[in-house]
Design goal:
By secondary structure, the chain is mostly beta strands. It is built from three helices and twelve strands; from the N terminus they run E-E-E-E-E-H-H-E-E-E-E-E-H-E-E. The chain has a domain of 88 residues: Acid Proteases (Cathepsin D, subunit A, domain 1, Beta Barrel). The two termini are 16 Å apart.
Length: 134
Amino acid sequence: MVVTPEVNGIPLTKLKDGTYDGSCFINGIAVTFTYDPSEKDAFISSTEAFKLLKDGVIDKNDFEGDATKLIQEKTISEKAVITLKEVRIARNTFKDVKVVVNSKIRGALKFGENTMKKFGTYHIDEEKGQIIFD
């Protein structure tokens, strides 16, 4: 999703806790993410990881370690590491994004500062409610 063709950005909703919600694409599938400037890394909820696995968006080869030990009935082990082949925010794509399963995060996916920087230099226009990549 891109707001306007001339701007490489997407809408973001600022929340009371200082985080932002937006949309991205994981391997071509739209997913809501939370950007938390106080975090450093990337996390995925166990529920979202299992859904992506069930829908064929990710597979057992995307897990670090023995996937059969990490995947249980309708859940994925806490702290399992998954490599997302492709994540796109606006027109920026980053390949092989490592995310850690964390059942305590709010929402499906949480990106910290280090992860967002991999998509390029950006700024947040709070007035327009957008993240814009330079």
